[in-house]
Design goal:
The protein is α/β, with parallel strands linked by helices. It has 10 helices and 7 strands. It has one domain: Rossmann fold, CATH 3.40.50.720. It has a 7-stranded parallel β-sheet with strand order 3-2-1-4-5-6-7, with helices on both faces. The model has no long low-confidence stretch (mean pLDDT 94). The structure holds nicotinamide-adenine-dinucleotide (NAD). Nicotinamide-adenine-dinucleotide binds next to helix 1 and helix 6. Nicotinamide-adenine-dinucleotide (NAD) binds next to helix 1 and helix 6.
């Protein structure tokens, strides 16, 4: 998707951080913005800010984890304009005590916001985007922690793996359609995510090790990349048709080491006598037009 002029763009988590910065970058290119966020006041204020900069924008209350809320948001968005670009970006972080101490409610909430919401976004908009036949785009926010997991929150990291997985699988499905897809994988960025997460958490505040990690993250993130830079990279990548959006070059070496380990593991445990899976047959059986990597057999 190259031309954003007068196109309606729906951004979740649009009231703050990477969502708002990307909205601003899209607005600079002429898009009309729907800033959907669980924080209705912040969304309204952010939209007013964009209008002050000359853009057409509206704030919209939406809890991305609530399927029923999406129906209402979809209707409100349709009244604003036919949505051609969806940035499914809202996310929450959280500290990292030992995995066995996770509160199941926090676990479910993290997955609901960071992963399940992408399905709701697609159920709300993707069908109409396909039916329009016009250039459209879907972007999901994952993280570089889904490429190289550092020793922080298992819930957060694995939910970002889910997002990466959704994007990679959906990429096959959207191949050769009018809907492009990207997955944003940033490193650290100076946003409000630690404070937002603490505010929205469904149970009592984190304690002990988890609280300590969250405090440490605040410092690490404060030194991270400006969200404005990331927003500009996202807009450029969508225009260029890039699938992976890796904003932080210092992670490349770690990614190489990680993938070298994975590829290297096709050794002792890989059966040299096996004839091989018929992946080409699998693709054909599912009517998929293509895969994004060459099929081995
Ligand atoms: N900040 C980083 O270092 C970093 C790095 C990699 C990925 N990310 C990802 O970037 C995305 C944006 O986060 P950010 O860093 O800009 O944080 P942020 O807290 O500044 O912005 C996130 C926004 O999402 C909203 N939100 C949270 N839960 C919601 C819900 N249930 N429904 C609707 N809106 C909700 C918040 O109110 C907030 O406005 C997240 O998916 C995050 O995981 C952030």
């Amino acid at each position: 998707m190259q031309d954003f002029k007068d196109k309606a763009a729906f951004v979740t988590g649009g009231a703050s951080g990477i969502g708002l910065a990307t909205a601003r970058a899209l607005a600079r290119r002429g898009a009309r913005l729907i800033l959907a966020d669980i924080d209705a006041t912040a969304a309204a204020e952010a939209a007013a800010g964009l209008r002050g900069e000359g853009a057409d924008a509206m704030g919209l209350p939406l809890n991305v984890a609530d399927e029923a809320d999406w129906a209402r948001a979809g209707e409100a968005a349709a009244a604003f304009g036919e949505v051609r670009l969806v940035f499914s970006n809202a996310g929450v972080g959280g500290g990292s005590g030992a995995f066995e101490t996770y509160d199941p409610e926090v676990w479910r909430w993290t997955y609901a916001v960071n992963a399940h919401a992408h399905l709701y976004a697609c159920r709300t908009f993707l069908g109409a985007m396909k039916a329009s036949g016009e250039p459209c785009h879907l972007a999901l926010t994952s993280s570089l922690v889904a490429i190289v997991p550092p020793p922080i929150s298992v819930a957060y990291i694995s939910s970002k793996f889910a997002t990466l997985g959704i994007a990679m699988a959906l990429r096959n499905e959207l191949a050769d359609t009018n809907v492009g897809i990207s997955v944003l994988c940033p490193g650290m960025s100076a946003t409000n995510i630690v404070a937002t997460t603490a505010r929205l958490r469904p149970v009592d505040a984190e304690q002990g090790q988890a609280a300590q990690t969250a405090r440490n993250m605040t410092g690490v993130l404060a030194a991270g990349m400006s969200p404005d830079k990331i927003g500009e990279f996202v807009a450029r990548a969508i225009q260029a048709g890039d699938f992976f959006i890796f904003t932080h070059p210092e992670w490349k070496e770690m990614a190489q080491a990680q993938f070298a380990e994975i590829v290297g593991a096709f050794g002792a445990s890989a059966d040299p006598d096996y004839a091989g899976d018929d992946i080409a047959g699998l693709v054909a059986a599912n009517g998929a037009r293509r895969m994004n990597v060459a099929v081995g057999r």
